[in-house]
Design a protein that fits this description.
The chain is an alpha+beta fold. The protein contains seven helices and five strands; from the N terminus they run ββαααβββαααα.
Length: 215
């Protein structure tokens, strides 16, 4: 959040524009994208191995996204109208961390960049450490084998850039894998999943539960 001094838009010498103050503070947060991220070797290898299969489905550049901190400037609010100097402004940013990066480290970087800036305050609304199930875990291998049998195309083991409730299980030591339908036009109008994908996911979940519990 940023605070300024309100006045008429023509009297810039008498006011301080909170939106301009805010935009300057947002830049070092966006710069987190350039932070070196030391991924564990098995995770880095998994992302690289999955790339030829995953990127044609999820878009060119996905493997780079999975290896780095992502920052999305999702909302900016401030100002009353075009001819007044805003006295307050707020930005909401979504920051996601790959394996090998800690929340504490990111918060230190944010503190170093933001705490000295005048008229700026910041806080974390929610947080969760990066967590994952090892790529060679039995549950991962069973799902991979069943998916390759049930699907009409080759399936890759990979990280996902999304956020799921599986994190709550993993944080309590319960291995968890996300396997679901392909999201088409995600985040846009008419986002959809195919009936065929639903059938495949049902088969993979059922077969994996049977194999895992039988073993």
């Amino acid at each position: 959040t940023a605070t300024g001094v309100p006045n008429h838009g023509a009297h810039v010498h008498l006011g301080k524009n909170a939106i301009e103050i805010l935009l300057a503070a947002v830049q070092p947060v966006l710069a987190l994208r350039d932070t070196p991220c030391p991924l564990p070797d098995d995770i880095a290898g998994t992302i690289a191995d999955a790339r030829p299969i995953s990127e044609p489905l999820s878009g060119t550049g996905e493997s780079h996204t999975l290896r780095n901190i992502t920052v999305n400037l999702g909302q900016v609010r401030g100002g009353l109208n075009i001819n007044t100097i805003p006295d307050a402004a707020e930005a909401l940013l979504d920051i996601r961390l790959p394996p090998g990066v800690t929340i504490a480290n990111v918060k230190r970087r944010l503190a170093d960049a933001l705490n000295h800036l005048p008229n700026i305050a910041w806080e974390t609304l929610s947080e969760c450490e990066p967590n994952w199930t090892e790529p060679d875990h039995e549950l991962v291998r069973l799902i991979h084998a069943n998916a390759n049998s049930a699907a009409d195309e080759e399936v890759a083991i990979n990280l996902r850039p999304g956020f799921s409730d599986a994190r709550f299980y993993r944080l309590r030591g319960v291995p968890s894998v996300v396997y679901g339908v392909a999201a088409n036009n995600m985040g846009g109008a008419d986002e959809y999943a195919s009936i065929k994908d639903l059938h495949t996911v049902f088969a993979v979940h059922t077969l994996t539960a049977f194999d895992f519990l039988s073993a």
